[in-house]
Design goal:
alpha/beta, Rossmann fold, GMP Synthetase, Chain A, domain 3, 2 domains, 4-stranded parallel β-sheet, 14 helices, 24% strand, globular
């Protein structure tokens, strides 16, 4: 029996591991991340977490929640997300973790689209969400502080197919899609991480530090499940704190870190210290998208490898590649070799396999008789998009790769029209829709341009409705007008005014030409630079 088959649910796995590792640390948040709500660090052992989860289970039972319903969580990156996930999972109830940095319009969409039955979280967040909601469908709002332990615990329910979480991820359409993620998805992710081995071998002594938010699969299903299933400890930050990063790594005795591509770039800008060598403490960093120019320099300076990997919210641990063994082809955008339990192809635009060494779209599926096993269960309320993604029996990733002679895969570019900024997926058409709300904008197109720190940045070409001043003042006015409709990171960093947009022979916008022209405009300075106005809202 495999490790996954030994458990029916995420809660079931936790309950067994908590017995074995009762006194070991399970969840921790350092003091650097608790300034808003605690004067000290917060830590749960497996045993104390089990008690907290039981209290929450009892409270949720008293609210009459039914299996397969959903609860929206507004806890930011606090440990409560994981405790509430475990408690609700024992009841067969799914969570919808919210990104409270989103605009009111975006949050309202997620609440309504997800069919959540209850919203809970930090008092202020619950109040804000309650003010956004129109009162339909009987959605309840209860601050977590008001949840009261009540009924005697009932037996846990659920199986491999039961939904654990509904995560929203940007795609090629303007509205985010809800990815339904099952118990098997979560368990398989932890299992795959635990069996990677090589440079990524982990065990119950490991302490994994992550600054990534639990409304994303990396923190919610990857680092969390990796540590849960081996008895290790998750150290959760509220965000990436560059100036105190290394002090936190030392103080927390972290052995593994998770990163986004922007992090190594920022850390390399810090003044050199005699204590920069972490070779005796950190065994590896796990992430994606680091600038190939920085990878070798970073590893030499700080003394541990950056393990580049590839996966999607849709694929989970069923289809992933990890550069966890040599040769890692450092500095060449190598994303490692596919795991043994997946099959893959590299196809051209017509769906035919490309010749060895050529670029093409990565197509993936699980090996064996169940090609979708371990993948997401589908897009909620969008069967058509789900089946389009699975056209021909393969999941179409939208990512362009090429395969080297030794079997390693190298990331080339994103085929889909999605901008990847500091780990956030931004649908270009969503930004375009917000820009078109301004009366002076007749047409526009949004694309990605390279950014040394953040991977991609948002660039907008704007065609004006009439002949008016094309100066910085108007660009700033358009920028400000879009702010209520978009999260801060989605706002355009650059606006360039043009008389017309490049079109194909069929009169569609030529995205390839747009990308080329955007880089050309950026290099020549024919843009209004708005980066300094893209700021995280103050809580």
């Amino acid at each position: 029996m495999t490790e996954i088959e030994a458990y029916s649910t995420v809660f079931g796995a936790f309950a067994l591991v908590a017995e074995e590792f009762a006194d070991r640390p399970f969840l921790r948040v350092p003091v650097v991340a608790t300034a808003d709500y605690s004067p000290s660090a917060i830590e749960y052992s497996y045993a104390s977490a089990a008690k907290a989860v039981d209290k929450l289970r009892s409270a949720y039972q008293g609210l009459g929640l039914q299996q397969d319903e959903r609860v929206a969580l507004a806890f930011d990156s606090r440990l409560d997300v994981y405790l509430h996930l475990l408690a609700l999972n024992a009841l067969g109830v799914s969570i919808v973790p919210l990104n409270m940095g989103s605009s009111d319009q975006e949050l309202r969409y997620v609440l309504e689209h997800s069919d959540s039955r209850l919203v809970t979280g930090i008092d202020g967040h619950v109040t804000r969400l309650g003010q956004l909601y129109d009162g339909t469908a009987g959605l309840r709002f209860i601050a977590a502080a008001d949840l009261q332990r009540g009924e005697e615990l009932v037996e846990p329910v659920g199986d491999h197919s039961t939904e654990v979480a509904l995560l929203y991820t940007s795609g090629t359409t303007g509205k985010p899609k809800g990815c339904m993620l099952s118990n098997y998805y979560f368990l398989n992710m932890g299992h795959q991480y635990n069996q990677m081995g090589g440079l990524c071998a982990i065990d119950s002594t490991d302490r994994l530090l992550t600054p990534l938010p639990p409304n994303h699969m990396n923190a919610l299903s990857t680092s969390f499940m990796a540590m849960l299933m081996c008895g290790g400890c998750v150290i959760q930050l509220d965000r990436f704190h560059p100036k105190t990063w290394w002090q936190t790594v030392r103080a927390e005795a972290a052995t593994v870190i998770h990163y986004l591509g922007v992090m190594p770039a920022i850390l390399l800008t810090l003044p050199r210290q005699a204590s920069d060598d972490f070779s005796k403490q950190l065994r590896f960093g796990f992430g994606a998208g680091s600038d190939p120019r920085h990878q070798q320099v970073f590893e030499q300076r700080f003394g541990f490898p950056l393990i580049e990997a590839w996966a999607m919210t849709e694929t989970g641990g069923a289809a992933m590649t990890v550069a966890s063994s040599e040769p890692r082809h450092v500095g060449q955008r190598c994303i490692g070799k596919p795991i043994s339990s997946m099959e893959f192809r590299i196809g051209d635009a017509a769906g035919h396999d490309v010749l060895p060494g050529n670029d093409g779209e990565l197509l993936v599926r699980s090996a064996g008789s169940e090609p979708r096993k371990g993948f997401f269960s589908g897009y909620y309320k969008d069967t058509e998009a789900t089946e389009q993604g699975w056209a021909g029996g393969w999941w179409h990733t939208g990512d362009l790769v090429r395969q080297g002679p030794d079997g390693s895969l190298f990331f080339v570019d994103r085929q889909k029209n999605v901008i990847r900024r500091s780990g956030e997926n931004i649908a270009a058409v969503e930004v375009e829709a917000a820009l078109l709300r301004h009366e002076a904008v007749r047409n526009c197109v949004v694309t990605a341009v390279p950014d040394e720190m953040r991977g991609d940045e948002v660039f907008a070409f704007v065609v004006l409705a009439e002949d008016i001043d094309l100066g910085e003042k108007l660009a700033r006015e358009i920028f400000d007008h879009t702010m209520p409709f978009l999260s801060y990171f989605k706002l355009p960093a650059y606006i360039s005014f043009v008389a017309e947009l490049p079109l194909t022979a069929s009169q569609k916008i030529s995205r390839a030409e747009v990308k080329r022209l955007a880089r050309e405009r950026l290099e020549s300075g024919q843009v209004v630079d708005l980066r300094s106005f893209k700021k995280r809202p103050q809580s």
